[in-house]
Design brief:
alpha+beta; three-stranded antiparallel sheet; two-stranded antiparallel ribbon; 7 helices; 9 strands; elongated; DUF4376 domain-containing protein; DUF4376
Length: about 180
Amino acid sequence: MYYLIKNDTLVDQSEIESDLILISENGMFITDSWPPIGKKFENGNWREKTISEKTEDGEISLENRRLILKTEILNFLSIKLEQGVQFQGFNFQAREEDLIRMSLAIKKIELGGTWSGFWRDSLNQWRELTSEQLNELALTAGNFWETCFRKSRTLIDELPSKNKTQLANYNIQAAWDAIN
């Protein structure tokens, strides 16, 4: 079924879209649902519903909303780790790959290898660090990674217990900040 709409009023409906095209006038539009799925009439215009409104109205299932939020939480985690930690007045990334590289460099030093004395910051600038400072950076970045990972897993693990309203209005930053 197709519906011809002007403002928030249903003008006509038909099983054949071309029938409505013939009688359509300026300011009207045709949709395959009434009211139009994913849209809300507000201030004289139809606008796209927010994801919260779609969740509240049942246009997004709770399971899909949980999956969307899980992906958004993982993206939030990735951004946090990419932003990294402050150390010696510079910012260093704290992604897993960065921690692995630090661990390998520290292990190399422990085995008697030569330390270059430099590590890249988050702006890809080489920064001079002693081997002791590298150890401190690795601990600082590792602690930050651990905290971020724990927070992200806590948020993800709590999603199944959230009701429709909580999922619809979920604020990742606020939930993240609420975890110590």
